[in-house]
Every structure is written in structure tokens, then in C-alpha cells.
Amino acid sequence: MMPAVSPAPSAPSARSAPATGSPPLCARTAALGALREADPATKASATRALYAAVLDGSLPCPADLELDEPPELPGRPARPELVEPRKLGRRNMQSPQGRAVLLHALAHIEFNAINLALDAVWRFPGMPAAFYTDWLKVAAEEAYHFSLLSARLAEYGHAYGDFPAHDGLWDMCERTRGDVLARMALVPRTLEARGLDASPPIRARLQQAGDHASAAILDVILRDEIGHVLIGNRWFRHLCDNGGLDSHVTYTRLAEQYRAPKLRGPFNFEARRDAGFDEAELAELTALAGLDGEQTAPSGTTD
Ligand SMILES: [Fe+2]
Ligand SMILES: [Fe+2]
């Protein structure tokens, strides 16, 4: 059975006080505070509480506030050890250990996704109010995904930090730190969209191995991730429209300029359509994969 998304928790408070001399507390300073938080469970619960506080109107969200970037973003725990992707081994889904390693890798992606969404909230001033609410919602959902995977990992006798992890996920965030248009193009519309493609084959492998509980978590994540990519598409197009830019040409230019990972099939066309990619973009993916509308074997990457 698919687990339901529970409401955001009421504790701990999203209002943990910023350091002396910091700007007045608001949703954007609190987002930066949560981004700096190193403990994963505290980061996740503070992020969900922050979104709840914005929804109930108890925390203002000033768009004009410009915040200085503190050193050493994002806050993260001493473990997992971060290694180059090629040093991570293959996972055998038939063994409990292999599935635990997979769940850990997914939890690591969600941990980074919390940071990526929080970063969009504090970093970019001058956006419409809905931009900040959208990214706080994404951050809260990523925190929920992280919590689901951590709980499942605990059922395998493991915790986040037990295995080495990929060191590249914060990289695109850093590259696009000065450009909200590039951030929207390349984080949600590229990296998160790759997750839409990768999810069905991973889910199938878990199901095949008899791990229905983990497969059900992937269902929740995929449903929410479609929403995240939709939010990315919405703000990417908003920024293109405001700047009088053609969204297709602009995406191609930014992907090249910021060295975005090359798109590779198979693509989850249904999820990508639901996530707001238009017919021209979908047709381009079809051509790219040389598929003529048919899907081929899964590649299985999620970042
Ligand atoms: Fe997620
Ligand atoms: Fe996401």
C-alpha cells in the first residue's frame, strides 16, 4: 500500500534563532539556517516545520532581502564519506545488503535535494512570493522523502551515513549560484527530471526482489518529484518570458554553458509530460534517444 504523505510536523520549531548580528528572522533566513544544519534528522524536521510556518502565515517571507553567503554550505554530517561516483560499487538487489546500499544512495539524493530546494529560497531575491512558497514546499517534500528512506533503512539495520556516497550532487548548485535562470534550468528541469526517468526501473528491481515496502516509497517519491519538476518548469518559463527569451534556445545555451550532464534515455515520457515539458521538448528527447517513441533498457541513474 502506498504510504500517505503526513502533515508537516509541529516540532522542532523552524524558528531556531540565527546567530547574533544576522538579519531579522523570516522564512528566507530560516531556510538558510536549515541549509546550514548538519544533523540530517534535525534538518529534515526543521525544513518541514518551516514550510508549515509559512503556510499558516506565522513567518514572513520578504522577497527583497539579500543575504550574504556564509562559508561551508551546505551543513552535512561527518558521514557519509563522500567519494567519486566511480568508486561506488554495483548493487545486487537480491541481497538485503545490496538493497540497503540502494536505499542509502536514495536517502543521500534526498538529503541533497533538501539542500538544493532550501538554497533556492534564501539565495535568490526579487522573485514573486509564490517562488519561495513553491521551493519551501519542495524542501519539505524532500525532507519527507529522506525520512521515509531513513526509516526503511533502519528496518534493514542501517542508518544514513553507513555507506560512502556520491560527492557530485551539490556541484550544479554551486555552478549556478549566481543565476536563478540557470538554477531552474539545470537543477529541477535536468537533475530532478533524470530522477523521473530512473525511478521506474529501480522500482521494478525492488519489486522483483520482493521489497514491496521500498517500492511503495518510490511511488510516493515519483509522484512528488513530478511536482518538483513542474515547479522548475513554471519558474524557468516565467523567467524566460520576463526576459523575452525563447525557453528552448535558452535551455540549450545554459546546458552547454554550465556543462549539464548529457540527457540519455530511456525517458519517462509520461512523467515528463505531467511535469510540464512541452511537445517540442518531448519530441527532442525522443529524437535524442533514437527511440521513435519506443523505450529501451533502463540506465538506472537518479542524480
Ligand atoms: Fe525527493
Ligand atoms: Fe525533488
From TrEMBL:
The lineage of its organism: Bacteria, Pseudomonadati, Pseudomonadota, Betaproteobacteria, Burkholderiales. This is DUF455 domain-containing protein. Residues 1-23, 65-94 are annotated as: Disordered. InterPro entries: DUF455, Ferritin-like_SF, UCP012318. It holds the Pfam family DUF455. SUPFAM superfamilies: Ferritin-like. Residues 78-87 have a biased composition (Basic and acidic residues). It comes from Paraburkholderia rhynchosiae. PANTHER family: DUF455 DOMAIN-CONTAINING PROTEIN, SI:CH73-314G15.3.
